[in-house]
Amino acid sequence: TWGTNWAILSFIIQGTLINYLYAGVHELSHWTVFNNRRLNDIFGHFFSFSILYARESDRIEHTYHHRYNNDLEKDAEIHGRGAYTLWSYCLYMIGPGYWIGMLKEMVRHALGSANEAHYSEKNQKLVVFEARMYLLGYGLIAFGSWYYGTMIVVYYWLAPLLLLKGMHQVEN
């Protein structure tokens, strides 16, 4: 649909669908989609990688979220976040605040700093390894795009994912 008015609708649908892959990530992190735990892990990583979201980090944080829901000290999904201002909440909801936070966390983990209280020593190593592998994968995709002189990754994956994050955030 590039070059037609249908491109806008296609872009919105594509971005929304890509962002909603998080629903799969969530269910796969509970290991409830398949009877085989390994299949849940494989598809969980595939979906997570696709939405620039570290699966193991999320799975561990989400476990603590269920265990200590709304406990400001122990709920890993809200601990240390602090209260939103109207501005920071709006930035989070439409995407930039979300993406900046995710990128900072992934880079910090890849650099070996995964010292959140909810990570055991074993989980720290897993989260660091995962962040490094994801960033390596993204780097290889970027290199391949550059090498072959194509923007297809940007047009059909990154731009819809990044620009339409707000569609998913509204549902959250």
Q: How would you spell out the order of helices and strands?
A: HHHHHHHHH
The total beta strand count reads 0
Total number of helices: 9
The residue ranges in which pLDDT falls below 50 over 5 or more consecutive positions are none
Instruction: Summarize the amount of helix as a percent range.
Output: over 70%
Radius of gyration, in Å, reads 17 Å
- What is the strand content? under 5%
Distance between termini?
A: 30 Å
Task: Characterize the largest beta sheet: strand count, sense, and whether it forms a barrel.
Answer: none
Averaged pLDDT: 87
- Indicate the structural class: mainly alpha
Global shape: globular
Q: What does this molecule look like?
A:
By secondary structure, the chain is mainly α. Helices cover 70% and strands 0% of the residues. The protein has nine helices and no strands. α2 (21-29) runs antiparallel to α3 (37-50), α4 runs antiparallel to α7 and α6 (96-110) crosses α7 (121-148). The longest helix is centred in the C-terminal third of the chain and has 28 residues, at 121-148. The two termini are 30 Å apart. 20% of the residues are buried.
What is the structure about, briefly put?
This protein has helices at residues 6-19, 21-29, 37-50, 55-67, 86-94, 96-110, 121-148, 152-163, 165-171. It is mainly α and 172 residues long.
Q: What is the secondary structure topology, with strand pairs?
A:
Elements: H1 6-19, H2 21-29, H3 37-50, H4 55-67, H5 86-94, H6 96-110, H7 121-148, H8 152-163, H9 165-171
Helix pairs in contact: 1-8, 2-3, 4-7, 5-6, 6-7
